[in-house]
Amino acid sequence: MPEKRVFLRSNDDETRFIRLKPETQLIAWAGSLALITWTIIATAILLMDSIGAGNFRAQAQRDQLVYEQRLNALSAERDNRAQEAIAAQSRFSAALSQISAMQSELLALEDRKREYETALEVVRTTLSDTMKDRKAAEEQIALLQSDGADTGATSQTSGAGDGTMDLLANALADTAAERDLIAADAEFALDHAAEMELELRLLQDRNDEIFRQLEEAMLVSVEPLDKMFRDAGLNPDSLLRAVRRGYSGTGGPLNPLQFSTKGGEPDADAERANAILNRMDQINLYRIAAERAPFDMPVKSNFRFTSGFGQRWGRLHAGTDFAGPIGTPIFTTADGVVTHAGWSSGYGRLIKIQHEFGIETRYAHLNSIKVSVGQRVSRGDRIGDMGNSGRSTGPHLHYEVRVGGAPVNPMIYIRAGQDVF
User: Fold this and answer.
1) What digits encode the pLDDT tens for the residues 186-225?
2) What is the mean pLDDT of residues 261-279?
3) What is the pLDDT of residues 366-404, one digit of tens each?
4) CB under 8 Å to 132, separation ≥6 — which residues?
5) Residues 49-67: tens digit of each pLDDT
6) Mean pLDDT score of the chain, rounded to an integer?
7) Beta carbons within 8 Å of 386's beta carbon, 6+ residues apart
8) Which end of the chain is more exposed for a tag (fewer CB within 10 A), N or C?
9) Burial zone of 354 (CB within 10 Å; 0-12 exposed, 13-18 middle, 19+ buried)
10) What is the mean pLDDT of residues 95-116?
11) Residue 386 · residue 397 · CB < 8 Å
12) Residue 170's Cα: distance from chain center in Å?
């Protein structure tokens, strides 16, 4: 690059020049080239960033759409399960009502059966006495006829003989009339006994049908309850023993039945009836146990699951999160006693409820608390409102179930209860 001069002429006809050395020219060209290069690179970066941002936004929108579709599907599935649970509960209530009606009808039929058995026994006794009286009357008639013949042969010349014959004739007529009446009573008793035996057989068939329906209803009612407790990881036998210890009174309609009026061992009908009553007692114990275990949902209004039980960010998330608007009602999932109702560090406003069988439930991040420590609550009672207190990124309920102090997945209980309630 040879040296150059740049002449500058002013208005006063003065001329000046600037001498550009090769080094200066080189620096100017290099600066211009660097500026152009920087402009090109910056423009390319801006274009790529704009294109990438558009792709990211589109991808985020697609992900959001898929997520919303999944949430809608889960919400629809939850509604279907809720409807199925309501229908199952209605069927269970109808079955219990039918069982109660059948039990009343069964007891009424057994009373009628005992009355028929007693009446049949009376008829048989009367028939036996009638046959004995008939035989005695026939013997008396034969004796009187024999005495009448002897008396007629020895007293033909006596005036008193005519009176004796008249008395004998009257006695024979009365005896014959009594014999005919006894025979008619015996025939009526035989016919009536046959009718009663037929009615007893029909009654027995009716009893067998009622027993069969009751046994089927008991089987259909008990199996879902037993499965519910087993799916929740609870031992049904231990639970029933614990409930029975708490409700150990005696008396009432579930006492063993005794249909026999003669004493001794119960007959087959009594054993079947007692087996049904034992099943009804078992259903009642299951119902009591179900009220004391957390099989219900803590949130009844619209919500969405935001986090389940398990590891999250390297730590155990010990419950299930239900997201919803602030103020959404929160309900207790089982009968129990409130052991904590106040602020608790990261939990925020927290409620702890102690239930039977060593089970505890926790309701965290609440906006308000409507119970106090020591208060006894029942399943379905409103205990607080959903909030955003404590370490929380948004309004939701953090719900925990602990057995013996160790956290377990609450959805195990909720899913098990949805199949029954």
Assistant:
1) 666 666 666 777 777 777 777 777 767 666 666 666 677 6
2) 64
3) 999 999 999 999 999 999 999 999 998 899 999 999 988
4) none
5) 777 777 767 777 787 788 7
6) 76
7) 299, 322, 324, 325, 326, 327, 328, 329, 330, 365, 366, 367, 395, 396, 397
8) N
9) middle
10) 72
11) yes
12) 81
Q: Which fold has domain 298-308+318-413?
A: Glucose Permease (Domain IIA) (2.70.70)
Interatomic CA distance for residues 421 and 413, integer angstroms: 12
251, 312 Cβ separation under 8 angstroms: no
Report d(CA 317, CA 278) in Å as an integer: 43
- Reference 294, options 393, 406, 414; nearest CA is 414
Residue closest to 399 by CA, chosen among 347, 341, 340, 337: 347
What is the rounded CA–CA span in Å between residue 168 and residue 164?
A: 6
- In the chain, where are the structural domains located? 4-51, 90-291, 298-308+318-413
Longest Cα–Cα distance in the chain: 210
User: Do residues 371 and 351 touch, judged by C-beta distance below 8 A?
Assistant: yes
C-alpha distances out from residue 179 to 132, 138, 175, 182, 392, Å = 11, 8, 6, 5, 102
